Automatic annotation (TrEMBL):
GO terms for biological process: cell division. It holds the Pfam family FtsK_SpoIIIE. PROSITE patterns: FTSK. Residues 403-608 form the FtsK domain. CDD domains: TrwB_TraG_TraD_VirD4. One of its GO terms (molecular function) is ATP binding. This is Cell division protein FtsK. Residues 27-54 form a coiled coil. InterPro entries: AAA+_ATPase, FtsK/SpoIIIE/SftA, FtsK_dom, P-loop_NTPase. Gene3D superfamilies: P-loop containing nucleotide triphosphate hydrolases (3.40.50.300).
Amino acid sequence: MAGSRRELIEQLRQTLSYARGSARADLAAAQAAADAMRDEHARAEREAQRCGQRLLAAHATRRGEVDRQSLHRLRAAADQLTALAIEQAPGAAGLDWPHWAPTLPARAQPPGLYRIGRLLARDVVAGSEPPLPALVAVLDEAHLLIEDPGHERAELAVRAPAPEPTTPVTHRPTERVHRFVGSLLLRILGSTVPGSVQLTVYDPERLGGSLAAFAPLAQAGLLTFVGPGGLGDVLDGLVEQVRRINETVLAGDYAALRELHAATGRRPEPWRIAVLLGEGDGAELTNAQQAQLDRLVRTGPACGVHLLIAGIGPAGEWCRHPQLDRIVLWGDRAWTSLTGNQFLVQLDPPPSIELATGTSRAIAAKVLAGPDPAVFADLLPAKEWTESSADRLAAPVGAGPDGRLVEVELGDSPPHALVGGPSGTGKTNLLYALIGSLAARYSPDELALYLLDFKEGVSFARFAPGRRDPSWLPHVRLVGVNVNTDREYGLALLAFLHQQLRERAEAAKAYEATKLAELRAEDPAGQWPRIVAVIDEFQVLLDGRDAVALEAARLLEDLARRGRSQGIHLILASQDLSGIDALWGRASMVAQFTLRIALPKARRILAEGNLAADTVPRHHAVINPDSGAEPANRVAHIPDAGRRGTLDVLQQRLWQRRDPDAAPPVLFDGGRVPLLSEAADLAALVPGPEPSRTPVALVGHTIDVTGRSAGVRLSRSPGRNLAVLGARAVEACDVLATAAVSLAAQYRPGAVRFSLVCLDDDAVEAAKRLHDELGAGGHDVDWYDRDGVCGLFAATARALRDGGDQPARPHVLLAYAVDAAATRLERKDPATRRSARDDLKDILGRGPELRTHLLGWWRSVPRLRDDLGGLGARFDAFGAWLALDVQGAELAPLSTEPGGPHWYPRERRALFFDRAVDRRPRVVIPYRTEEQR
Ligand SMILES: Nc1ncnc2c1ncn2[C@@H]1O[C@H](COP(=O)(O)OP(=O)(O)OP(=O)(O)O)[C@@H](O)[C@H]1O
């Protein structure tokens, strides 16, 4: 038993010992875990601390960044605002006084704002805010009510709550108010065109003493001081101005002068500023004056009438009008109703008295001296090619005595213009100014110009591409210069315009339109620009009683009557219109030319009794859209538009803008002989398929608006020969060379045979040159002289007889001075009893059907007649002829007109007639061919 107890105890001890050991181990483990936890905790704490510091650092960095960014943004915004503010108050409206000088606004630029100081934001630490200019609006915008409650200390103003914009108190204007008004007036006067601002100062207290610096303006009528008791008159006078401007200037078309200015670029009325400095007793205004003041506050700015008010009372309804801005001064700071409670204004120090006096003096002197003469740039619009010509064309040509632009208008009324002025008075210059002014406003889709100058000189040539200047005015479709002897060219232009008139009338009929604006509206895809034809020295065209003059007058009359509704306008200019019977004799035509432009000393262009042209100074013109009736006179100074850097620069600019497919104008220069090598019609000739092709022999340049060549078609019909008539050898040789060279261009070498026969020593050189040129081109060409002529004719006639009806290879006989061999040609061959003349007649008669054509030169018509059979001979063998120095009457036998065509020979001009196509002969210019070789 005892043993089992001992065992039991032993067991228990062991168990206890085991348990103790186990507990100790657990304890140790727990302590180790606790230590580890503590370490972990300590580490976590340290980490947390580090994180916190990092976070703080990151936060600080980020915040710094944000601060920097917002400061940057703030500065950028402030810079933008400053730039905007400078833009709004440009030049003298915003410059600091130390750097201040008057500046002129750009033409048509509306008035901006005026700097009075800089803005102080209330909740920004003083000094850290960017210096934004504080601006106020006056002209075309607002009136100002200026108060000075009398607080002297600026700090007070910064700390004090902003004054509430309640009904203002009427304070007697202090020195500060006067200085403020003076500064503002100087900015306004210095940034507007001299004379465009008129001041009225009502200052019963100091009688204008404090604004005495502006007194020089009074000499120029720009300043009026009004004495005590004058307030009512001032208000009544301004109310009357507003009424007049509304009624007669704005006239229901515009709501305000500002609008009119924006739409037309004109500012027909000055700004009127009334400075009303009251006595501050609050009892100055009667009820009637209150009512007038109320009217002016409401309606003044639209009419350019503005009030700067201080110390006028009692304060009534007018004080609360939104067009009246309030400015309350404290020391050197101010509160304004524009900037509100968030900002105060640190006022600029006032300018020196000398600056104000000097500026006023300069403005007065400028106004008394009159406006600057207009310059060409003044005629140009702000944006080129933006106007529509659907209803009319309108463009300024100069500036009136008041400096405002004077416009010329063409449309339904007035439709056409007469321009007159003796030589040297500036007619050409006026036309340049008008053309430039129109071309800058209207694109070539809106305006097409046809320019013709009958006098010697090249005045309109500048509008076409030239050797030195390849540019042209894109509106110009045709330029004719030196047309003095080529009246036919003028006629051709009128005929062309007449054709345009017909086309437009037909289109208008199809669309049931009665005028151009309607046609354009109905046919928006159509090309219907207004057409303006300018004809300088047009009287040349109407000179005499010949067919050209009669036809020209008929076409002019029709164009003048019907052109108005089809958008075709004529501008006719002349040195002296007084003696143009063909014009004045047609009352209905003259009546259409209601726009009259008279240069100094122009006669008869204005209505009888209207003597303005006699007194208008040099470089001026009287523009009169009412047929010259005196009340419609407008005198304009015309800028120099011919000088370098004016019209030429505009032309370059517009040329760069032209449609790349636009063709240059057709140029006709009557003073220049065209070269065959430059003829487009020659360049277009190429060898054609044989034998179907009918070749054409060119003979000269037509005096026509197309600028094409005239030619004879050498078909296989009777009479397809050409006779060149007259004694001028050089021109005759040129005509034959032109014909030969152009024919040669239509054949491959060998496909045609040329036979040259030259019987005049003077022509040998030219004929030889042609012979060599044809030969050099690979063509078959033979040379015959006096001894060979009969043989050639005989052989050719024989070939025609023997060849049957089948045409052989084309054969062109070029016969120079055929008549020089008269005796030889006459001589009959005893064997055959035929003469060379008989052979010649055979060639002329049968040749064309068998493709043998004779292009021959006879030095007179009787000699040709002799060769054709003498007296009574028929000229049918020559279906085409070209006459050089041959009088019209001598051409009677060749002409369809009884007594012959009306033609007086002139140098380098020929009368050409092709029975197959012409109704009557046309004038051509024989090409110069010498440069050919
Ligand atoms: N408004 C102007 N301003 C400055 N110069 C001008 C003005 N008008 C004309 N002139 C100059 O006067 C001269 C004559 O002008 P212009 O050629 O226009 O006269 P015109 O009447 O056409 O004379 P003409 O009929 O003899 O050609 C030119 O040298 C021209 O530059």
